[in-house]
Structures are given as C-alpha cells and as structure tokens.
Amino acid sequence: MPGWTVQLVGYTTGGEDAYLYQLPLKQDGDGNWVGDLRGPEVRKALGDTSRVVSAIATADDPEETAASYPTYTLTVNGGTQPGGS
Fold first, then answer.
1. Residue 23: beta bridge partners?
2. What are phi and psi of 7, to 5 degrees?
3. Residue 65: is its pLDDT beyond 90?
4. What pTM was computed for the model?
5. Distance of CA 49 to the CA centre of its chain
6. 9 and 53 in contact (C-beta within 8 Å)?
7. Of 18, 16, 17, whose CA–CA distance to 8 is shortest?
8. Residue 13 · residue 70 · CB < 8 Å
9. CA-CA distance, 80 to 2, in Å (whole number)?
10. Measuring CA to CA, how many Å separate 75 from each of 14, 21, 36, 68?
11. In what order do the strands lie in the sheet with 3-11?
12. Is pLDDT above 80 for 14?
C-alpha cells in the first residue's frame, strides 16, 4: 500500500466542541506505517474538552491496485481496537 491517512476526531458529548487531527505517519524498518500520539500531544491535538474520540483510517491507493481493502491495527493505551483486520 503506498500509504495511509489516519485522522482523529474528538468532540464533546453535547456537541459544543469538535476537533480534527491528522496523525503524522512514517514507515518503520518492516515497511509498516506507524504513528504515535502521547501525553500532552493528545490534549494539544484533541483539546481539553473531547470526551469522545474516533479514528478514521484511510488507505491511500491512488492507482486503485488493491484487490481488497488492506488491513490495519489500531492500538490505544496498549489495547488493540476493533476494526481494520
């Protein structure tokens, strides 16, 4: 896969505030695309008031060569989240 885009969306339960953050990704030594967001970076990206956070993972395939949607793994606080594989 040529690349991935991961966007994080955070919002308040009442809908007063909403935040969108594109997570920077890079390829590791095995060719996997990885991104990381920790500690104060999370608050900076998604604000102080977000109570709901979701991730949108999009495969970047401009030539449309993938026969099926590629899999991914999303890990939050050390736990694998549902979806992607």
1. 6
2. -115, 135
3. no
4. 0.84
5. 19
6. yes
7. 18
8. no
9. 23
10. 26, 17, 10, 22
11. 18-23, 3-11, 52-60
12. yes
State the burial class of residue 37 (Cβ atoms within 10 Å of its Cβ: 0-12, 13-18, 19+). middle
Interval 71-80: pLDDT, tens: 889 998 899 9
Distance CA 34, CA 79 (A): 15
CA distance 22 to 7: 4
- Token reading at 35: 């991104």
Question: Residues with Cβ < 8 Å from 65, sequence gap 6 or more?
Answer: none
- Closest Cα to residue 41, out of 74, 5, 72, 10? 10
- Residue of 27, 20, 23, 21 whose CA lies nearest to 3: 27
The domain ranges of the chain are 3-80
Environment class of residue 14 by beta-carbon count within 10 Å: exposed (0-12), middle (13-18) or buried (19+)? Answer: exposed
Q: Look-up: residue for tokens 């999370």?
A: 42
